[in-house]
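# step 3/5: fold
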Amino acid sequence: MLLVDVTIVNVALPDMSRSLHASMASLQWIVDAYALTLAALLLTAGAAADLLGRRRVYLAGLAVFALASLMCALAADGGVLIAGRALQGTGGAVMFATTTALLTSVYEGRDRGIAFSVWGAVSSSAAAVGPTLGGVLTESWGWPSIFLVNLPVAVVTMVLARRVLPEFKATAGRRLDAVGALSFTVAAGATVAGLIESAHSGWGSPTVVTLLVVGAMALAVFVVTESTVAQPMLNLRLFRRPAFTALMLAAVLLQGAAFAHLGYTSMWLQTSLEMGPLAAGLVLTPLSLSALLVAAFAGRVLHGLPARIPVSAGLVLIGVGVLTETFIGPGSNWTVLLAGMVLSGIGAGVVTAPLVSAALSSVPPADAGTASGAVNTFRQLGQAIGVAVLGTVFVSEAAHTLAGKNVPGVPQETASALGGGQGRQIIESVAPARRAALTEALDAAFAHGLQQVFLIAGSAAVAVGVAAWFLMGRLGRDTHVPAQTAATAPPAPAGTRS
C-alpha cells in the first residue's frame, strides 16, 4: 500500500488538475509531498520505533496513513491534497521503518528468509502495479478512488497487526536525535520547494532565494549536529568512504533518473496523445514490470560478481534507456518510449538487487542499520529532487520552444500550465481560428520539454554509473553480490539492530 502510493498518482495527475484547477507546481507537490516526507522521516521513524515500541509505532503509522488517505480523497483543492499527501508520507515512513524489523521479531531461521522473500516480492511488485491500478481506478471511479482503496487495506492490517505482532523495545540508553531530524526535514523541504518554485518564478525570485538559503542553513545545522551528537541519526563519517558515497548517489539516481519523469510522461500521453488514464498506465507499466522481473532473478544471475559491476552497469542501462526516449518528437506516438522504458527497467532491476547489500558491506557492522536506512532515505529523496529539478527543466525548454513558435496571444505562464495538464483548456480558451496553430505549438513544446528532461536524467545516470565504478574501488573487488540479495531480503532500517 505505501509503495503503490509512490507511483499510483502519476496517471491521475491530469484528472486532478482539471478537477482541482491545480497548477503545475501543485501537481509537483502532490507527487513530492509524499516522497519528501517519506525520505525526511524514515531514519527518525526507525529510531522512534525502537524507543516507543515497534508494534505501537507501526499501528500509529497505519492509522495516520488511513486518515491521510481519506483526507486526500475528500480534498476540494490542491492545498488540502498536498497536506494529505505529506501526512500520508509521515505514516508511510513509520510503516516502512518498522516492517522489516517486525518481521525479524516474528520469524527465525528458514522462516525468516521466506518471510523476507515474500516482503521483497510484494514491495517490488508495488511499482509495477501502481500505474495500471491508478489507471483502472481513475478511469472507473475518479481520482479520489486511488486513495479510498487504502482504507479497507489499512483496517484489515490494523486488526491483524494487533492479533499477531509482538511488541519490541530497544534497550535503555537510546535517544532520539530531534535536532538532526528537524534540520534534515527543513533542509530537504526548503530545497525542494525552492527548486519547484524556480520553474515558475525564476532563480532570482526572492521566494526562491529565501527557500534555498533556508535549506542551506538547515543543512549546515544538520551537518554540525550529526558531527557532534553521541547518537546521530546519520553517521556522516560513513561518507568518508568513497564506496558508500557512490552507493548513496546510485540510490538517488535510481529513483531520480528512472522514475521521477513518469508524471510528465503520463501528462504527455494524456494531453498530447489524448489517452485515458488506464491506457497511459499501461504504457508506463513496461518500466516497472521489467524492473520487477529482473530484480526477481538478479540474485541468481549476479551471484558472485563484484558489487560494482551490477551497480555501475545498472545505472548506465537506466541512463541509456532514458536517453533513448529523447527521440520523442511532436508527431511521435507512445511506441517511441517503449524500448527506453524496458531498458531503464532492466537497469533498475539490476541496481536494486545489490544496492542495499553493497551498502552494508561498505560500512562497519555496527553501522548496518544506518546504511540500510540511508539507502531507502536517499532513494525517496532522489524521487523528490528529481521531480523538482526535471520540472524546472521542462518548463524552461517548453517556454523556449513556445517563444520560438511566436504564436500570438499565448500567455507567459503557458509552459507551466502545459506541464500541469491544462493543454486542452489552453486551446479551448482561444478563438477557433487560432486553435490549429496553438495545438501544433503546444505539442512541440511538450515534446521538446520532455526531450530535455530525458537528456538531463539519462546523462546524470550514465555519469554516476561511470563514477560509481571508480569510487567503489576496493569494495568492488572484495565484495560480491550474495545469492540472497536485498531484493528478497531487505535488512532492518535505521534505528534497529536485528
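# step 4/5: annotate
Residues 135 and 278 are 4 Å apart (CA to CA).
# step 5/5: archive (pending)
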